Amino acid sequence: MRIRIVDAFTDRPFAGNPAGVVLLDSFPDDTWLQNVALEVNHAETAFAHRLPEGGEADWALRWFTPATEVAMCGHATLATAHVLHSTGTHRGPVRFATLSGVLVATPQEDGSITLDFPTAPLTPVDVPDGVAEALGAEPLAACDTGPQVGDLVVELADEKTVLGLAPDHKGLSRHSRRGIIATARAEDASRGYDFVSRCFFPNVGIDEDPVTGSAHTALAPYWSERLGRPDLTGLQASRRSGLVRTGLRGDRTLLTGRAVTVIEGQLLA
């Protein structure tokens, strides 16, 4: 069977967030899926198979990190939709049946793809003891994202502080179910983005995720409220970096980005 490595939320190779994508006839046992994800060793590997016509979804989709299955993943969904469209396997909007319900990916005329995801509920919370020490910076505010995303969003003083973080990942693992999203307002919106973020997920085996679609289902409502606009662009400022265009639509968040296939090969095991 074919396996592809796709860089998501970028328009060029070797940037954005790489994901493995494997199209199957059906899902084999979970041990095999997990072993393939460990072998690929990217933040997520997506596995998908076609569903019978006439149902509420077109394809079943699951995501695995090298350590565990996850309930939601934006960049690997974008990568899977990119593979389906670029290979002619599926045309038009594709509906994925996932652990987070039916998620729709719609190709745009400019070559980008828009994902329709549930908006994360944000609950303001006190900054937990130890978070500032583990991050190496003092948060201005914190929000819990609820069980679907499982992160703690912390706003920092400025973009420079977010970019300069060198956190204690073991220390961060004590303060959320999945990880910590550190964010700040962009210093200069004329650069093409409105806010910056970095995402640290040690509890699922990812110290820092390059570009995280699911995190933007929380960042979109967080910054839309503060900036007074439903449509924004976020820069996830990891070493690889990537842009996510967000559109807040009530209980749904639209995530738009591009993707590039960089490796295609044969999975022999």
Describe the protein's topology.
Blueprint (H helix, E strand, L loop, with lengths): L1 E7 L8 E8 L5 H11 L3 E7 L8 E6 L4 E2 L3 H13 L7 E5 L2 E7 L5 E6 L4 E3 L5 H5 L5 E4 L1 H4 L1 E5 L3 H5 L5 H4 L6 E7 L9 E7 L4 E4 L6 H12 L3 E6 L5 E8 L2 E6 L1 E8 L3
3D architecture notes:
With 269 residues, this protein is α+β, with helices and mostly antiparallel strands. The protein has 2 domains: 2-117 and 258-266, Diaminopimelate Epimerase, Chain A, domain 1 (Roll), CATH 3.10.310.10; 123-250, Diaminopimelate Epimerase, Chain A, domain 1, CATH 3.10.310.10. Helices cover 20% and strands 39% of the residues. The chain is built from 7 helices and 18 strands. The protein has helices at 30-40, 74-86, 131-135, 146-149, 159-163, 169-172, 216-227, and strands at 2-8, 17-24, 44-50, 59-64, 69-70, 94-98, 101-107, 113-118, 123-125, 141-144, 151-155, 179-185, 195-201, 206-209, 231-236, 242-249, 252-257, 259-266. The chain has an 18-stranded mixed β-sheet that branches. It is globular. The termini are close together. The mean pLDDT is 96.
